[in-house]
Amino acid sequence: MRPTTIAVLGGCGHVGLPLALKFAEKGHDVTIVDIDAAAVEAIARGEMPFLERDAAPLLRAHVGNNLRATTDPSAVSGAEVVVCIVGTPIDEHLNPQVEKLVGLIHDLGPHLRAGQLFVLRSTVYPGATAHLARVLDERAPGIDVAFCPERVAQGHALREFEELPQLVSGVTPRARERARDLFGCMTDKLVEVEPLEAELGKLFCNSWRYIVFAAANQFYSLCVSHGIDFYRVWGAITQDYPRLAGFPRAGFAAGPCLFKDTMQLAAFYNNEFTLGQSAMLVNEGLPRVLVQHLREAAAPLRERTVGILGMTFKGDNDDTRESLAFKLRKLLALECRAVLCTDELARGAWWRSLDEVLAQADVLVIGAPHARYRALTPRQRVLDPWNLLGRGGLLA
Ligand SMILES: NC(=O)c1ccc[n+]([C@@H]2O[C@H](COP(=O)([O-])OP(=O)(O)OC[C@H]3O[C@@H](n4cnc5c(N)ncnc54)[C@H](O)[C@@H]3O)[C@@H](O)[C@H]2O)c1
C-alpha cells in the first residue's frame, strides 16, 4: 500500500499506541486522537506513557515527523483511514456497552467524510460492526467500514504485528479490500472473514485462554485443598508429553481483556456460556483459595505481616488494570496484621520497596510473576501459585 494518512482513535492506549507506532514505522503519516490529555502530552514529548517492548526508540524516531498526537477530534477529518481502538469495558452488570461506541460515532460524525475507511479494531460485542456501520451511514454516508480485531499480547505488540496473522473483515467487499491493503503493510498473513466471524473469533481467542487458565487454576485449587503440591503433578505429566504442551501453570488470570471478553460472549449467548462463566468463578476465586491456604498454613494470620511481590495483572508488565493482586491484598487486609505490597514496574499509593517488604514480612505471596523475583532467595516462606521461585505451589 502507498503511504497514507491514518488517524488512530484511542491511539494513546495500550494497544493503540503500538499500532500507531507500527503504522508510522511503515511510512504512513499518523495522527493519534485521544481524550487522555496527559498521555497526548507525554507522546508529544517523545515519552511512552507505559511499558511496551522496543516502543520508546520508535516513538522518539517518529514523533514530530510522521507521527503526532492530539485531543482534537476534528483531526480525523484529514485522514484517509480512521482506526478506532478505544477501550471497550463491560459495565457493572458484566454487560457490553456498545452504546459508548455509538456515542463516539455520533460525536465524531461531523468530522468524518465520505471516502474514508473506518477500521474498528477494539474488541466488540458480536454484531457491533454492522450496527456501527448503520449509525455511521446515518451520520456520515459514504464511509467504508471494516472490522479487524487486535490480537497482540500487551507488551509484545511491535513484534507480534508482523508475526501473527491479521483477521480482516469488511461490511462491504470494498471495505475488506481496503483493510487488506492497510494491514498488508505489516504481514502477508491475512485471513479474510465476515465481520461477525471476526468479532466472534476475537472473543473466542480470549475466552479460550481464560478457560484454559481456569482449568489449570482449578487443578491447582484442588491440590491446595488436599495439601498436595500441584507442581509435582504438573511437572510429572507435562514432561516430554506433547499432548499437554498447552497446559499452563496456575496463577492469576486477570487484566483488562480476558474476563470482560468472556463476559461479552456470555451476554451474546444469553448467559448460557457455562464454561466461560465457570472459568470466571474459578479465576476470580483464586485469591480466596490463596487466603484460605495461608489461614491454614500460616496461622494465626492476625499476627502475620504478608508481603505481596508483584501487583500488575501479568508478569514483566507495568499495567495494574483488573489485577487480582489487589483483590488478594483486600482480602488479606481483613485478616492479617499488615499487607505490604511491592512491584518492579508499577507504582501507586500502595507501593513499598522490595527491600522493605523482604525485611518486614513474615510470609510472602507472589502476586505477579516478574522475572526479577525468580532469582530471590527469601528467608520467609513463599506462596507462589506460578512456581516462579521453584519452591512448588504450596506455602514453602
Ligand atoms: N490490552 C490488550 O492487551 C488488548 C489486546 C487486544 C485487544 N484489545 C482491545 O483493544 C481495545 C483497547 O484496549 P486497551 O487495553 O488499549 O485500552 P486502553 O484503555 O489502554 O486504551 C484506550 C484508549 O482509548 C482512549 N479513548 C477512550 N475514549 C475515547 C474517545 N472517545 N476518543 C478518543 N480516545 C478515546 C483512552 O483515553 C485510551 O487512551 C479494547 O477493545 C481491548 O479489548 C486490548
Helicity range of the residues? 40-55%
Beta strand count = 12
Dominant shape: globular
Task: List the bound ligands.
Answer: nicotinamide-adenine-dinucleotide
CATH hierarchy, class of the largest domain: Alpha Beta
Based on secondary structure, the structural category is alpha/beta
Strand content: 5-15%
- Poorly predicted ranges: none
Question: What's the average pLDDT?
Answer: 97
CATH fold name of the largest domain: Rossmann fold
Q: CATH homologous superfamily name of the largest domain?
A: NAD(P)-binding Rossmann-like Domain
Radius of gyration: 23 Å
Tally of helical runs = 13
- In quaternary terms, these chains amount to single chain
**For the largest beta sheet, what order do the strands appear in spatially?**
3-2-1-4-5-6-7-8
One letter per element, helices H and strands E, the order comes to EHEHHEEHEHEHEHEHHHHEHEHEE
- Distance from N terminus to C terminus (CA atoms, Å) equals 57 Å
Second CATH tier, the architecture of the largest domain: 3-Layer(aba) Sandwich
Short description:
The protein has 2 domains: 5-195, Rossmann fold (3-Layer(aba) Sandwich), CATH 3.40.50.720; 202-217 and 226-383, NAD(P)-binding Rossmann-like Domain (Rossmann fold, 3-Layer(aba) Sandwich).
